[in-house]
Specification:
The chain is an alpha/beta fold. Helix content is 40%, strand content 12%. The chain has helices at residues 16-25, 37-57, 70-85, 97-105, 122-126, 150-166, 241-256, 258-278, 304-313, 333-337, 342-345, 359-373; strands spanning 64-67, 88-92, 109-111, 132-136, 174-178, 196-200, 211-215, 282-283, 294-298, 348-352. The longest helix is centred in the first third of the chain and has 21 residues, at 37-57.
Length: 375
């Protein structure tokens, strides 16, 4: 990847290991559902990757489901749970569009966050309506980088469940986490006591249009889609051996290389933050626990689109909020939930770094920012 690329939260290039795995998959072009030799070989290839990934995530192979992207996985987790158990979904106001818009479309609940920390409000969880059956919370927020306090959330959900049981309400209260931006943290859903977990491929140096949904064996989903029995019927349609090999390899590498990557990006983050602040910029929720790979930066009074385009002309790639809705020019609900004003939002850019970012590339970015901002 080009060292001037500062939009890792939106998408990433393929790792060499991922490319190699996907090239190997070219030999398995047959439909994995076919009963002839070629089909069975393709199916065996897919199951091999499923088993290897399950071992890395410390789950069972039967709990791993391959999807065509994190948006599809999030929709299946929320809609599938409600379709099967009844009730409604809930999420926090800072979630990715694929979660919050799905929750709203289903008449679900959106919970407020603490403006000072970005964490979901405790009383919001405690007062969840009795018909909420699945609560979704990103492990790492895709705009601010806030790392959710999953242990606290799971404890609060357990209290809500206990209260319900005491009143004769036996609906489940499942926890779904979107771990798409959480490649620097422990990815095993067991660690976070999640019932459902989404893993995006394109955020982890894997192919686009590929993702994994973890579904605990204790959970049942009823998908909206109908068709064949692929992926236990959760995702009907011919499986792509190539994309499955890619996303599985990307996730396995992320798990194995998490610690050194985290250390590297923490060091680069410190250098970047110091430089941003020296230019008069401010980092949203700078003092909170956040993933070091993503920063939401405000340069007061500066038009963010103009700045983004000027940086682009100089060969730099930066974001202005979540790439999934940046082109719509809608205000960021994540930033609004944190009481970031519209003027500040129009002056904010998202900088996200990754394994190919260097100290020199950050120095180069800061120099160009200084030239554009200060003159």
């Amino acid at each position: 990847m080009d060292p001037k690329y500062f939009d890792y939260a939106a998408s990433t290039a393929l790792l060499p290991e991922v490319k190699q795995a996907m090239e190997q998959a070219d030999a398995f072009y047959a439909n994995p559902s076919a009963q002839h030799l070629f089909g069975r070989e393709a199916a065996t290839f897919i199951e091999k990757h499923r088993q290897e990934l399950a071992a890395e995530l410390q789950v069972k192979p039967q709990e791993i489901y391959y999807m065509a992207g994190a948006t599809e996985a999030n929709n299946l987790a929320l809609r599938g749970a409600v379709n099967h158990y009844g009730g409604r979904p809930a999420c926090v106001m800072t979630e990715h569009d694929s979660v919050i818009r799905t929750v709203e479309a289903m008449g679900g609940e959106t919970l407020e966050v603490e403006r000072a920390t970005g964490q979901v409000k405790e009383d919001a969880i405690i007062n969840l309506p009795d018909d909420v059956v699945v609560f979704s919370l990103a492990l790492v927020n895709n705009e601010t980088g806030v790392v959710a306090d999953m242990r606290r959330v799971r404890k609060l959900l357990a209290m809500v469940k206990e209260s319900r049981e005491g009143r004769g309400i036996d609906l489940p209260l499942l926890l779904h986490t979107d771990a798409s931006q959480a490649g620097l943290y422990t990815l095993s859903p067991r660690t976070h006591n999640a019932d459902l977990a989404t893993y995006s491929s394109k955020s982890l140096y894997g192919p686009s249009q590929a993702a994994v949904l973890f579904v605990s064996r204790s959970v049942q989903l009823k998908p909206d889609a109908t068709g064949g029995s692929q992926e236990n019927g959760y995702r009907p349609g011919t499986q792509s051996a190539k994309n499955i090999a890619g996303v599985s390899t990307a996730l396995r590498v992320a798990v194995k290389e998490r610690a050194p990557q985290l250390n590297q990006l923490e060091t680069l983050n410190e250098y970047l933050v110091e430089g941003i602040e020296s230019l008069g910029g401010s980092v949203v929720l700078a003092s909170e626990e956040k993933s070091p790979h993503v920063l939401m930066v405000v340069f007061e009074g500066v038009d963010n689109e103009e700045l983004m385009h000027k940086l682009s002309q100089r060969g730099f790639a930066v974001g202005i909020g979540s790439a999934c809705h940046a082109s719509s020019k809608r205000p960021s609900r994540a930033l609004e939930a944190l009481a970031i004003s519209r003027d500040e939002q129009r002056s904010s850019i998202r900088l996200s770094i990754g394994r190919y970012t260097t100290r020199d590339s950050i120095k180069d970015l800061l120099a160009n920012l200084e030239d554009l901002l200060v003159g």
